[in-house]
Design goal:
The chain has 2 domains: 123 residues, Orthogonal Bundle (DNAb Helicase, Chain A); 293 residues, Rossmann fold, CATH 3.40.50. The chain has 18 helices and 9 strands. The N and C termini lie far apart (57 Å). The C terminus is likely disordered. It has 455 residues and is α/β, with parallel strands linked by helices.
């Protein structure tokens, strides 16, 4: 099977670069590099032209180009000036050049896939190679290749200011509302501006506190805005997640979805009605396979971003993910997994919410959880932009039967204040509701707003 190349497309692009004024501006978004050209000679010509334009030339200098390539053996064998003239005659206009540049980039990626996976196939034939190492190599190769889809470029001060200023204007238009993706907790939105693109969030709790339920609440409310969510369920099957979502949505005791109690006639009618259509339409994508590695996580996120344009990633939970490199100490494994999540949030410019466990010793204290209570690795605290804890508030009077008073503590907030948000957790419906005191806007006084926060 032949290697995918298209010399005609390369000639069209080079002909365009050789023929028009400021051609690099027209092709800028395609982010072509010399490595994208299958022909080594074409790659060297592209490099020479790029150097000319970077020196401020508006048009290609064919005399200087010929002089630079004059000692190139392949250039001489191709006919030297005649080769350049043939390239110039290949110029077909801006539209054709852009299409040809896209094709060159596409074929370049295809060749990289062939080369990268061929190396992994060779490793797979070598029985001395570990299977885990081969799988990790495949995932690393795919993640690196998918990451090449975004054009990488240096941003000027003018572009950076324009981008930031547009965000300020958007904030003004929102009348101070969250710039990130709003959750259904107003107090959380006031403190964090919602789930912000590029930020990495950790929600930690002891088992049974409702962290999965809160994550599902975030998932459903954000999906109802039409924003696709990718949910990694590493602890329970997706069917159980949907049952929990149904319990919360339709206010039906979650135990009934386990067959503990029978459904009432009204509940049966509700579940058989068109009301379920709302859940059908939510743009949520579940990945509930066991033994997901950090490399697989990164690859899946990139693929789902290309396919569905996801706006939020949720991981339930971080401790169930596997590192690419086995046999390390546990804190190093957790560090590798946390780094993968932080990297995905930055690469794809989307929020990543990872659920985590707290150390058991927090149950032996009367005080509220601290950052040091994050289980297994201090890197979680360092990597995350925001760290939140769910814990039961036992200092208040007993709540009604079947309810728990829960505190959502924002223990680290890189971009705003630390805060405690009081919630009521309905254990039957797996539903969180917020105390009305959080419905007021965030405080405006700077000193009060940042009290206890970090810069």
């Amino acid at each position: 099977m032949s290697i995918p190349i298209n010399e005609r497309a390369e000639a069209v692009v080079l002909g365009f670069l050789l023929s028009v004024k400021n051609p690099q501006v027209k092709l800028h978004d395609q982010a072509l590099t010399p490595e994208d050209f299958a022909s080594d000679l074409n790659a060297r010509i592209f490099t020479a032209l790029r150097d000319q334009f970077s020196q401020g030339k508006a048009r290609a200098d064919t005399v200087a180009l010929d002089r630079r390539l004059s000692k190139d053996r392949e250039y001489k064998e191709a006919g030297a000036k005649e080769y350049l003239q043939n390239l110039i005659s290949s110029h077909l206009g801006e539209y054709k050049a852009i299409e040809a540049a896209k094709l060159i980039k596409d074929l370049s990626r295809r060749r990289a896939i062939i080369q990268g996976l061929s190396e992994q196939v060779t490793r797979a034939h070598d029985q001395s190679e570990s299977l885990d190492g081969i799988v990790s190599g495949v995932n690393a190769t795919l993640a690196g290749l998918v990451d090449q889809t975004a054009a990488k470029r240096i941003t000027t001060q003018k572009e950076a200011v324009a981008e930031a200023y547009n965000e300020v204007l958007e904030l003004i238009d929102n009348r101070g509302g969250p710039l990130g993706i709003p959750t259904d907790l107003i107090g959380l939105n006031n403190a964090t501006s919602g789930f912000y693109p590029g930020d990495y969030y950790i929600l930690a709790a002891r088992p049974g506190t409702g962290k999965t339920g809160l994550a599902l609440s975030f998932t459903a409310s954000i999906a109802r805005l039409g924003i696709p969510v990718l949910f990694f369920s590493l602890e329970m099957p997706r069917k159980q997640l949907i049952h929990r979502m149904m319990a919360s949505t339709f206010k039906i005791d979650a135990c009934k979805f386990r067959g503990v109690f029978p459904f009432s006639h009204e509940e049966k009618a509700l579940l058989e009605s068109n009301a379920v259509d709302e859940l059908y339409k939510l743009p949520v994508h579940y990945y509930d396979a066991a033994n997901v590695t950090a490399g697989e996580f990164r690859t899946i996120c990139h693929i789902e971003m290309e396919r569905h344009g996801i706006g939020l990633v949720v991981v339930d939970y971080l401790g169930k993910m596997k590192p690419d490199r086995r046999g390390q100490q546990r804190h190093l494994e957790i560090s590798e997994i946390s780094e993968a999540m932080r990297t995905v949030s930055k690469e794809l410019k989307l929020p990543v919410l990872a659920l985590a466990q707290m150390n058991r010793n927090v149950e032996n204290r009367n005080s509220e959880p601290q950052l040091s209570d994050l289980r297994e690795s201090g890197s979680l605290e360092q990597d995350a932009d925001t760290v939140m804890f769910l814990h039961e508030d036992k200092s208040l009077p007993d709540p009604p039967s079947g309810m728990k008073k829960i505190i959502l503590k924002i223990a680290k907030n890189r971009h705003g204040p630390e805060r405690q948000i009081k919630l009521m957790f309905n254990r039957a419906f797996l539903e969180f509701t917020e105390m009305k005191e959080h419905f007021a806007p965030a405080p405006r006084e700077v000193a009060e707003h940042w009290e206890g926060g970090e810069d």
